[in-house]
Design a protein that fits this description.
5 helices; about 35% helix; elongated; alpha+beta; about 220 residues; nine-stranded antiparallel beta sheet; two-stranded antiparallel sheet
């Protein structure tokens, strides 16, 4: 795994690229990718112009697709690994994207997250949210990546179609359903406790009062 200084060296030697390179995002053994110009959140009408709006708001149970600010290129001897920033993981975000950047890949990263917390999570434009680590292979791979994601610069219809389809269940939707179910169960438990009080205390009291009235009339 490359240390921060080694990432700089690999870039200088042309083994990889990170553009634009922000010095404050370069850690001891990582580079923190930032929130880019567009995103999509389940339930919204369309893409979010994050550069103009300034933030991405993910409500509890919602699913988001986010483009990174940086474009990355991994040469045939470099592979990358993805992880969510610990600050956002502690808030309840969960990363749903694949864990690896293949040797030969070039383009902006498009990542998927869902909010498992009971409160909304906000990501600011150009805020660091995704950790990337890089490994130098013993030798270049024979067939560098040339898949459909090569050269991607932003969200495509394919990136958001499953999230936008109301007939297609998502993890975010399932989380919302579970949260609603939990509230319904809690409400039911309260009703059962109230009924138990009526049956256990209120009903005997009513019987006693009726008995007293009958006794007085006798």
């Amino acid at each position: 795994m490359l240390a921060g200084a080694e990432i700089r060296t690999a870039i200088a030697e042309g083994l990889m690229e990170i553009e634009p390179l922000e010095a404050s995002c370069l850690g001891l053994a990582r580079y923190d990718m930032r929130v880019g110009h567009e995103a999509y959140v389940s339930g919204s009408d369309g893409k979010i112009d994050v550069a103009n709006k300034g933030l991405v708001v993910i409500d509890p149970g919602e699913f988001a697709v986010i483009v990174t600010r940086e474009r990355v290129r991994c040469g045939p001897q470099i592979a990358g690994q993805l992880g969510l920033s610990s600050a956002y993981a502690r808030q309840g975000l969960m990363l749903l994207s694949g864990p690896q950047i293949d040797p030969g890949f070039e383009g902006r990263l498009i990542v998927r997250v869902t909010n498992l917390a009971p409160r909304r999570v906000t990501l600011g434009y150009e805020g660091a949210f995704l950790t990337t680590q890089y490994l130098k292979l013993a030798a270049p791979v024979e067939r560098p990546y040339q898949g459909s994601r090569q050269g991607q610069t932003g969200l495509s219809a394919k990136d958001i179609e499953a999230t936008a389809d109301p007939e297609s269940p998502t993890l975010g939707g399932m989380v919302k359903s579970l949260q609603t179910l939990a509230r319904d169960v809690s409400s039911l438990q309260a009703s059962v406790r109230a009924m138990a009080w009526v049956v256990g205390i209120g009903l005997p009291l009513v019987v006693a009062v009726v008995g007293t009235i009958v006794g007085l009339r006798s």
